[in-house]
Structures are given as C-alpha cells and as structure tokens.
Amino acid sequence: MECVTMTSYSISINGGLHGHFKGECGLRQGGPMSPIVFLFCIEYLSRMLKERTSGSGFSYHPNCEVLKITFIAFADDLMLFSRADTLSVSILLGWLHDLEEASGFTVSPTKSNIFFSGVYGLLKEELLRRVGFDMGKFPIRYLGIPLAPSKVSLEQFAPFIDSMRCYLQRWNHKTLSYTGNVELIG
C-alpha cells in the first residue's frame, strides 16, 4: 500500500524516462477545488472566530455590531471588520494566523489593505504597524464593482458601465444561435 501514499513522477522524452520528482498533496491556487476548500475552512474558522470574539473584549465595527459581523468571504477573498482598537485587531490577526495553519492559505501583505474611518494619529500608526498592510483608500474595486462605505457616485461606476456597454455591443453584432446567446449572457 505504500505506492498509494508515496507517489513519484518521471517525464518521458523520446521514449526515455528523465528525472524523478515526488508527488505532493494539496491544491493549486486558482484550481477548481480551491474556492470550495476555502469555504469549508472558513466555515470551521468562522465558528472559531465566534468563540474568540464572545466574552473576549472584542469590539465590533459600529456598522456591524447589531448583526455581529466580523468578516465576509468571497471565493478566496476576505474582508474583516472590527472597531479600531488594538485588542480587536489582535484577535483578528490571531484568527488569520489560525486560518493559515488550518488551511495552508496565506495572507499576502502586498495584496491586503486596512481601511480606517474616523481613526487618526498614534492609534492609526500603531494599527498599521501591527497588521503590516498598506492603508487602503475608498472606493475600492472588487470584480470591477466600486465598493465604499458611503453612497457610490455614478462616475465611480462609469468604467463598469462602459465595459458592460462594449460587451453588449459586441454581442449585438454577432449572429449566434439561441444557445450561443445564452452562453454569452452566462
């Protein structure tokens, strides 16, 4: 049974085997199973975060307190929410560390941002130093859609509207079957 658990591969070039490398367990980032595994891990870790935040001194973001929202997950992206105090941010950072340990997913500091509202001076500097992320600026774009804590203006939607308009114009000029049209829409 050892051959089932210990795989190795060679490459056949012109009929001859060249090189040996071991197979590894895991999923490729961006592979079709990656988001599903991420969601399984998030489900487990959301329960862990709920445990950590209850009775620990964690302070919810003022707009998230009623529903007790601490994060939102999209495929393999996360948005975390808390009040801007060192204890709450430390709890979230500890949770991110647990996420890395449990799932193998890692936080990329170069692709991550922290956003503030009404936080200034030394506290802001301390939190920036602690998390190690760049400070983000609203509105942000997620999958082409502008996101902001306040109402988003029509001008901020202009790039998205223009790309959709171009897409629909290209589609209008194509003569496709009904099935082809359904595929373009989907």
Automatic annotation (TrEMBL):
Pfam families membership: RVT_1 (PF00078)
Start and end residues of each Reverse transcriptase domain: 1-147
PROSITE patterns recorded: RT_POL
InterPro entries: DNA/RNA_pol_sf, RT_dom
Domain of life of the source: Eukaryota
Protein name, entry field: Reverse transcriptase domain-containing protein
